[in-house]
């Protein structure tokens, strides 16, 4: 069992290059399967979700390979079946994008239920509603489900809730459907825009991505092209918070500052200072962390995926902070672990009440999902002594080379490739809580 050893490190200093966005990459890899020839995607991170997708598409007959310049070439010309191994498709969240990507061409897709970070129940009713409106039929079995459509036809779809996943899936399905599809109350996330940009480069006819109404006029053919995935705004956010957490100065490179506008504004209220220059942002600790109130929301709201690192930071704020988690009201798995480290946090009805400033101390803690993991790394950097973090496989779903990136900022963090020994446990206080 791999684990992370994190030691208290004041003042992280330096600069990190931000990789391509996981969430966008997962959509782009599926979108590429809509083309009739090779799509080249640049900047796709080599994370575990990517590797599972490679296995899935290869089994269907897709040729996929990473070249020496790290670009991923995808050719879907020879797909000979669309039955996806349920175990593999359930090991990450977005296998459902293969419904949108494959249904118009092949008429049938079979796959396992969505996995990924199951911090709360994550319904897919809006995906089903949208695809059914376009003519798809769903049949649900115990471990997998099948979706069939003789022909997908354009439809006007109103989403009952703003969802990036269902917006993307519907765009994929509509790209080669017959007629025009209008998506209303659509998500405006940069990942939605990135997917629309790739599809348009392939020859699709999509307008309005980035607003709440998207129009897609189906086309009969989509072609190959080259596209670079947008940078990961969520990883960038976590690194920018690390400056505040450790009293340091951290620069993130190769990002789109516009994607982080809400984030920067909120963090400025909390006491961090920022300098934006071209495609870099530098975050400076001022030595002050002010308590605040935050509500997460769909883009351009404060991202739910940065709520966890922010929670770690607010344990160090002077006074009481309140975080209302509006996207996934029960997404607080990290809180119990922070409490183990000495944080004073109470959660009630989707709201976390954080009393600061608390002295964090070493402990054995468990990362149950990607962002909980990054939250615990940040807490470990501020905690007295040595923190052991298990659940590394969850962190690896979202962050490529996370350890090396933190090390390059001076962080004392190492990946341990062995079981936690009694000696290690003693070093973090001698108690190995049941995880
Ligand atoms: C791979 C990926 O891109 N993951 C991101 C994506 O997940 P994902 O695409 O799954 O999240 P959605 O944007 O769909 O979810 C937003 C909200 O809509 C609700 N909902 C969603 C679909 C549906 O059919 N019915 C429904 O009620 C969800 O419960 C949630 O409250 O956006 C989330 C919200 O920004 C992020 O936390 C995830 O990191
Ligand atoms: C929830 C997340 O991912 P996924 O939707 O892939 O589970 C995340 O990236 O924080």
UniProtKB/TrEMBL annotation:
Family per record: Belongs to the EPSP synthase family. MurA subfamily.
Keyword Protein biosynthesis annotated: no
GO molecular function, one term: UDP-N-acetylglucosamine 1-carboxyvinyltransferase activity
Enzyme class, UniProt record, top EC level: transferase
Entry keyword annotation includes Cell cycle: yes
EC nos: 2.5.1.7
A GO biological-process term: UDP-N-acetylgalactosamine biosynthetic process
Binding site for UDP-N-acetyl-alpha-D-glucosamine: 93, 122-126, 305, 327
Active site as annotated: 117 (proton donor)
Listed pathway(s): Cell wall biogenesis; peptidoglycan biosynthesis
Origin species: Heyndrickxia shackletonii
Protein name: UDP-N-acetylglucosamine 1-carboxyvinyltransferase
Residue numbers binding phosphoenolpyruvate: 22-23
GO CC annotation: cytoplasm
